[in-house]
Design goal:
Main location: membrane
Membrane topology: Multi-pass membrane protein
Structural class: mainly beta
Keywords: Cell outer membrane, Ion transport, Iron, Iron transport, Membrane, Receptor, Signal, TonB box, Transmembrane, Transmembrane beta strand, Transport
Shape: globular
InterPro entries: Beta-barrel_TonB, Beta-barrel_TonB_sf, Plug_dom, Plug_dom_sf, TonB-dep_rcpt-like
Protein name: TonB-dependent receptor plug domain-containing protein
Distance between the termini: 40 Å
Number of strands: 50
Strand content: over 45%
Length: about 800
């Protein structure tokens, strides 16, 4: 029976308290401005099973209705979506936007607009999830925006984490590096979900040993309007953002938005500038019950100078200054900053489609296309009488040569095309839901490493290697010239059954991934063809039980794998000064495979709590040893054998109470290596050692305040000491950094909706620290298993980002 209540308008503070309402489901229909908070939200009842309990609801006063709703014997949850400000802040999410309620039978935590909108507009998506338990951010710049930053999840690197954007794979298919700056501007991110441990079986990822991260782009608004944001800060930061929403176009049900941003700043450490131009756009239409079509596109063009990775002794001697390149050029200087930088262009297109076929059947399909073209270059010395693979080059006659050697720019020009689609068919019948899916992915990459002549001012003849140095046969001299084609076919079947009044949920599924690789390296004397294929069955099961409406326990057990990563896994890196290989392609690598188990507990209410215990057993653990070869930072990939990781994580957040919302998270991790690792003809005694980049303790603490006008927050992260060598003979010290926000929202001023001022301070105390270690077998000489002396090598570290200050002015219109 439909309720006689046609509409109900309540203050936002009241709506946030209406978490359960007898037999009534409400739908947000309008958003209005009200004093004291930023909105008054109007709701319409969709159905009412309570009968007499709310029969005369339309005759009740607001106070009486509020009292009745709060005291009623609740049988349904009310799901409220409210847009409080032009930035999307609602002040409804526990933990200041870091701990919304979750129900999945796995460790999962989302970051909402209540948190995202109050961070610096320059923030990289990875910096937005740094406070979730299990995440360790290695921030490489002052503003949280650089793709030189990286992260770890439960002690495993970012290449072990599946990353999707609007349901499509966005990470580099070869290296699995998540170039998140290509995905969307911060203002357009609606939510980011972190799955620590187990990725959804339907997710189009094949490297999710540690889990997955899912990023979502906001939908177009229903009404004509837009947003603007301008930001300025230290290090000559300047950024502008504008978004325009069409609203519903006529009565077609179609709506769209497009946005553009441009940002630039001086490199926070050393010379050079970062630049980024970006476009987000989305068109959508919803019709009938459960049908929708969306098409989105992002375009990015960016350039940035590199920072050096440095040893611990360099850090102790010179501090941060050891990590930056020379600001001025002198002839022969390969460390001039303009020679050591990167530029990238990218386009991402996706079209998620959902069709309600009736009879409980739903079909979703998402075709996609991703193009990435870039060059990451470095300066190095090149012999005039060199080699192109095994073939002598003859005299290269390089300008500026001294004693038979000259400074050149070594280009790494990569061009990637990825296309595919992910289809899922779902059938719901009674308490059962059956899902079946098929994912296809085609990846084509060309990566070339020619040399370019350097002019008298230190600028290369062509940044992209368009005019390369050629040998006596007229061929470009290169260190590698690789063409890789990868094809993937993946099938899955999953079944979910609910019983005991839907309190108990059981799930079992099987995913089967088939991959093939074909690679060529067109360097004279190299083996022309490389190739391999692989197939992996990936079963998973889970169960959850809703003890009370506010308390849930869950268990999951799953398998996952990750293919060896990096273009140089499939090709050799040649020394252009001698007929030899500087870095041989990896041999004997097998896919990393893991079996994981996890048990967890959640509580929702005034205080939200999520906690879990986890265990991983891994074989063929993929790791790397990183070092400079010539002037280029390259990684040698190794099979690190088995690894066992066990730990616990906890997050606690308070639902906004008088504007206050504290948050805390914690992780304990014990990760050990199961095998001795080969080093030449001997083995290092690494079995039983703590795995690298696996701090035993990490913790985050924060407090957010928002009264609708004034808002402020502060967050602190602590990362314990972590080993950077497999022999545990060198470690990276523990560190703690803090960020803070202050802001004020005004009432509507003429056409400006909720204009606001905001200041973000990052690394508030300018703590000087090392953010991550690159890994090495042993830092000091050690005796091997067979008695030989194994020489040490210093691991390399990334310098942590310094103090950043961002002042922003934004408004809707």
């Amino acid at each position: 029976m439909r309720s006689p209540l046609n509409s109900l308008t309540l203050p936002g503070s009241t709506v946030r308290r209406l978490f359960q309402l007898t037999g009534m489901t409400l739908l947000c229909s309008t958003v209005l401005t009200a004093p004291g908070f930023a909105e008054t939200t109007t709701y319409k009842p969709l159905h009412n099973k309570a009968g007499p309990a709310l029969k005369s609801a339309s005759k009740l006063s607001k106070a009486s209705l509020k009292k009745q709703a709060l005291n009623a014997n609740a049988s349904e949850n009310i799901h409220v979506v409210a847009a409080a400000t032009s930035t999307g802040v609602t002040n409804t999410t526990p933990g200041g936007g870091l701990l919304p309620p979750e129900t999945a039978a796995k460790a999962q935590q989302s970051v909402t607009r209540d948190f995202i909108a109050k961070q610096a507009a320059t923030s990289n998506p990875i910096s937005l999830v740094q406070y979730t338990p299990g995440i360790t951010l290695s921030n490489a710049d002052a503003f949280g925006q650089s793709d030189q930053s990286s992260f770890y999840m439960r002690g495993m690197g970012q290449t072990s984490v599946g990353y999707t954007f609007e349901g499509i794979p966005i990470a580099d298919p070869s290296s699995y590096a998540p170039f998140t700056s290509e995905a969307s501007d911060t203002e357009n991110i609606s939510k980011i979900t972190v799955q620590q441990g187990v990725a959804d079986i339907s997710s189009p990822v094949y490297n999710s040993v540690a889990g997955a991260i899912k990023q979502y782009l906001s939908d177009p608004e229903s009404h004509l309007g837009g947003k603007v944001n301008v930001s300025y800060g230290n290090h000559q930061l300047a950024r502008e953002f504008v978004r325009f929403d069409t609203g519903e176009i006529g009565h077609s049900g179609v709506k769209a938005f497009a946005s553009y941003s441009y940002g630039t700043n001086a490199q926070w450490l050393g010379p050079g500038r970062d630049r980024r131009s970006h476009v987000d756009a989305k068109v959508m239409k919803e019709w009938g019950e459960g049908n929708s079509a969306r098409v989105f596109m992002t375009w990015t063009e960016q350039s940035f100078p590199f920072l050096m990775s440095i040893s611990k002794s360099q850090w102790k001697q010179n501090g941060r200054s050891a990590a930056y390149y020379d600001p001025t050029y002198t002839p022969g200087d390969v460390n001039y900053y303009k020679l050591n930088s990167e530029e990238r262009h990218s386009v991402v297109i996706g079209a998620p489609l959902v069709f309600n076929l009736g009879h409980g059947l739903t079909f979703t399909s998402e075709p996609y296309y991703v193009h990435l073209h870039g060059a990451g270059n470095n300066g190095q010395d090149q012999a005039e009488e060199g080699y192109n693979g095994t073939r002598p080059t003859g005299n290269l006659n390089i300008p500026g040569a001294v004693d038979g050697s000259a400074a050149v720019q070594a280009v790494d020009n990569f061009n990637q095309h990825t296309a595919g689609f992910n289809n899922v068919l779902s059938w719901k019948a009674g308490h059962n839901e059956l899902q079946a899916g098929y994912w296809y992915n085609y990846y084509n990459q060309t990566e070339q490493a020619p040399f370019s002549v350097i002019g008298p001012n230190g600028t290369a003849e062509n940044f992209w290697g368009k005019y390369p140095i050629k040998d006596q046969y007229g061929d470009a001299v290169m260190q590698f010239n690789i063409h890789l084609i990868q094809q993937l076919n993946s099938l899955f079947l999953s079944d979910t059954y609910k019983m005991f009044n839907d309190k108990l949920t059981l799930n079992a599924g099987l995913k089967f991934v088939m991959m093939s690789y074909k690679s060529t390296n067109l360097i004279p004397g190299d083996n022309y063809n490389y190739g391999r294929s692989d197939a992996q069955p990936l079963p998973q099961i889970s169960a959850s039980y809703q003890i009370t409406p506010h308390d849930q326990i869950y268990f999951d057990a799953a398998t996952a794998f990750r293919e060896p990563s990096g273009i140089l896994v499939y090709g050799n890196y040649w020394d252009a000064g001698a007929p030899q290989i500087d870095l041989a392609h990896s041999t004997g690598l097998k896919p990393e495979y893991s079996i994981s188990e996890e048990i967890g507990y959640r509580h929702t209410g005034l205080i939200n709590i999520t906690a879990s215990l986890f265990n991983y057993n891994m074989t063929n653990r993929q790791s790397s040893v990183t070092a400079y070869t010539g002037g280029r930072l390259v990684s040698q990939y190794i099979n690190a054998g088995g690894q066992t990781s066990r730990g616990a994580q906890l997050a606690i957040g308070l639902r906004p109470w008088h504007g206050l919302s504290p948050y805390a998270s914690f992780q304990y991790l014990h990760a050990t290596m199961d095998n001795n690792l080969p080093d030449g003809t001997d083995y290092i005694r690494s079995a039983g050692k703590i795995a690298i980049n696996s701090p035993a303790y990490t913790a985050n603490f924060g407090l957010s305040y928002d009264d609708g006008h004034f808002f402020a927050n502060g967050y602190m992260s602590y990362v314990g000491a972590q080993y950077s060598t497999f022999m545990n003979d060198e470690k990276m010290p523990a560190y703690a950094i803090g960020n803070a926000t202050l802001g004020y929202r005004f009432k509507k001023i003429w056409f400006a909706k909720s204009p606001q001022l905001q200041v973000n301070a990052l690394n508030l105390t300018d703590n000087k620290y090392l953010a991550s270690g690159g890994g090495a077998f042993n830092a000091h000489p050690v005796k091997g298993v067979f008695g030989s002396t194994l020489k040490g090598s210093s691991p390399l570290y990334t310098v942590g980002g310094g103090f950043g200050l961002v002042f922003s002015m934004s408004s809707g219109f």
